[in-house]
Amino acid sequence: MLTNTKSNILFITLGDQTGANTALIKVAESLHQKGHRVEVLVRDKVDYNVLITKLPPRKNYSSLLGHLVEKNGVLKAVDRDPKYIFNTINEENSYQDTSVILQHLKFTPQIIFVGITFDFLTSTDILNLSEATKAIVYNVAVDMNHFTGGCHFAWNCEGFIHGCDTLRCPAILDNKFREIAGRNFRIKNNNVKSGNFKLLAGTKWTQKQALKSLIYKTQEPIFNISGVVDTTIYNPYKRHIAKDFFGLDSNIFYILAGAENTQDERKGYDYFVKTIIFFWNKLQPVERAQIEILSVTKILDEPIHKDIKFKKKQIPYIKDERLLSSLYQAADVYVNCSVEDSGPSMLAEAMACGTPVVSFDMGSAQEFVIDKETGYIVQNKDSEALSEALLRIFNTPFQNRLEIGINGYKLVSQKGSLSQAVNTIDTILEYHQSDFNKYSQSISVALCTYNGQKYIAEQLDSILQQYLIPDEIIVCDDNSSDNTLNILQTYQLKFPDLVKIYKNDARLGVVKNFEKAINLCTKEIIFLSDQDDIWLPKKISSIACLFNYHPAVEAISHNLQLCSEDKALFNFTMWDTMGFQNFLAKNYSNKDYLFHTLFFGNMVTGASLCFKKPSNPVVFHDHIPHVIHDYQLAITYLSKKNIYFHNECLGLYRQHSKQQIGAVLDKVIQHTKAINLFYELSNPLWNLLYINKRMKNEPIFEYVKPLQIKEVKDTIDMIIKDTIIAFFLPKNWEKQLRFLLGKIISKIIKKIHEE
Hints:
Layout: E1 8-12, H1 19-33, E2 37-42, E3 52-54, E4 68-71, E5 74-77, H2 98-104, E6 111-114, H3 123-133, E7 136-141, H4 159-162, H5 179-195, E8 198-201, H6 204-212, E9 223-224, H7 239-245, E10 253-261, H8 269-281, H9 285-288, E11 291-299, H10 302-305, E12 311-316, H11 321-330, E13 333-336, H12 345-352, E14 357-360, H13 365-368, E15 375-378, H14 383-395, H15 398-415, H16 418-431, E16 443-449, H17 456-464, E17 472-477, H18 484-494, E18 499-503, H19 510-520, E19 525-529, E20 534-535, H20 539-549, E21 555-563, E22 569-573, H21 574-577, H22 580-585, H23 593-600, E23 609-612, H24 629-640, E24 643-654, H25 668-681, H26 684-697, H27 699-707, H28 710-728, H29 733-754
Parallel strand pairs: 1-2, 1-6, 2-3, 6-7, 7-8, 8-9, 10-11, 10-13, 11-12, 13-14, 14-15, 16-17, 16-19, 17-18, 21-24
Antiparallel strand pairs: 4-5, 19-23, 20-24, 21-22, 21-23
C-alpha cells in the first residue's frame, strides 16, 4: 500500500461563529497548513471557508424535538434552570442519517474531534459515524456537556460523578421530566463505551472534572489543550499606541471586563460590580478620578451596571480579532469575574496582549494567573479579595505592570497558544498512528484492458490518487495490439508492489477477462474497473465506510456521472439512463430490485460495482450477448438480497464510440415511461403483456432460466400472480375498461390521420 504520513482529520462543531466553534476551526486550518487532510462539519455556516462543510438536516428533522416533551398530548418545552445550560432533552434525536453524512465528507476520517454539537449531532450520531468510518473519536470538552446528562456546567451538582440517574437533577425544574437527564447520561455513557470515545480537555479545569466523571474517569491519558490563542494576533506589540487608537487618555487607568452576556449568572457580573464598589471604597477621591471602567458585551445587565460609580464606557461586543487585541492592549488590567466557566477565552487573550489579570480561582485562571508574576488570583466569588488584588495592580508602578504583562504573554505563548494546541493534536495523532490502519479493509482493484492506450493512464491515475489507496491493482490485458501494455509497464515500474500485470496470450473477451482478474485478486474488497473511466478521489474510502456501516452487505453499487470523450458532463447520471433514479425516487408499494433488473435492465454497472471477495472462484457465462459479467453479478447479489445501492456519483463514466458497453442515452425517456406505466398506471393487462414480451425477447432470461435460481423464479412468479389477481378484482374493472377503450380510440384516431 502507498503510505501517507499525513492524517485524515474531521472536526465537528455547531457552526463557524462564536468562540469555542471558531477556536476549533483555527486548529483545523493550522493542521491543514501542515499538510493534513482536514474537513470541518457544521450545522450553521456563515463565512466562506473551503474546509467547512454544512450538513443539511434529515427530512422532517426539527431541533425542537431535542427540547420538547409530551405533556398531556402536546409537545411543550421542559422547564429548566438557565444557569446549567441544559440543551439536550433527547440524546437520540438524530440530526441526519449516517449514509448522508458520509456523502458530505470529502474523505474517510481516521480521527474525529467533536466540539459543541447540541441541536446538531448527538452522541448516537457520532457513534454511528465512528462505526462506519472506524475513526477514533475525541470529544473536545470546552465545557462539561460531553460527560453530563445534558448540562454544560454542573455548578455544585455531582450527577456527572455518580450518574445523573442517581440524583435529583437541579437543571430540570419539572419533576415529571427529571429522568431525562438520567436517560441522556446512560445513552452517552453507553455510546462512549461502545465507541471507545476519548476526551480532549479544553482546560486543566475541565480535565480535572473529566477525571472525576463516571464516563471518563478511567481514560488514560486525558490530553489537554489549555488555550487556542493566536499569538500572531494577540500580543503586546502595539501597547504603546493602543490607547491613542481608541481615543483613550494615557493618564487614565482602564479596567477591562466583559462577557457576551453579562446577565449570564456564570459570568459573575454582579460579583464584578461588588468588586468595583469595594475598590471604590478603598480609594481617595483623587485616585477615583484616574480610573475608568470598560465593559465589552452584547447584553449589559443595566440595573447592576448603574451601581458602578466610576466613569464607565460600554463597548459593543467586538468580533474583529485585531480590534479586540488592540482593546486588550489599551487596558491596564483585565478583571475576570466568571464563577463557573472552563475559560473564559478573554482571560488568556488579554494576558497574551500583555495585560495583567486579576481573577477568581476557576477555569483557565488556574493555569495562567500566577500571583505577582502574571497577575493575582483569589478565592472564587470573594469580591472583597478581588478588589484587594485590583488595588495591588493599581498601585504597581507602570514598568512593573509591563513586566507582569510580558510574563503573561510568555506563559500563554508556552501553554495556551494556537501553535501549542496544534502540537497537542500532533501528539494525539502520533499516539494513535498504529491504530489508524487497525480497521482498514484490504482493497483489490480488478482492471481489464484491451487496446485502451487513449484512456488507461487517466484511469490508473484516478485510482492512484484515491484518498484510500488500494493494496493491489490487478490488470489483465486481453492481448492488446496498441501501446496499452507499454503504458501499463511504466506504472508497474513506478509502483512494483501495487500494480500487477497479467497478459493473455490469446483474447478471452471482456467477460472471461474479468473472471480471470477477479480470481487473481487476493484482498478483502474487490473493485471492478474499466479502462476508460475516471474515479473520483473519495470512491474507495466512501465504499469502505459503507461496508463498515452495513456489515451484512456483500456488494455495493454506486451511481456514475456520464461524460463525453473529453470529460464534458452530461445532464444524465448512469441511473437516469436506466430509469433507476426515477424508480428510487418513487414510493412504489411493490418495489423489488431483482424484478426491476430483470424487466427494466441492469443498473449495476461494472464500473460502479465492488464486492467482498467470494469464498469460491467466480465463473461467468460468456455465450449470451449483452449478459456480461456485471449483469451476472447483479443477478447473483440481488437474488441474495445482499447488495446496497449508494446514490452518489463516485466516478465519471465516459461515453465514446469504441467502448464495448455504454449507457443508452437515447432511451432515458423510454425507460422512464415504461417504469411509470408499470408501477403508476399499474394496469394488469398491460403489465402481463410487458412481462411476457420481456421474457421472450430479452437475453437475460436466456441466462437465468437454465440456472434455475429459486429467488429469481419466486420473484417472477409472485409478480405474475399479483398481476393476475389484480386483473380479476372488481375494483379494477372500470380501470381496465378505460385503459382498453383508450387504446382502441387511439388506434381509430391514428387510422383517421393516416387516411
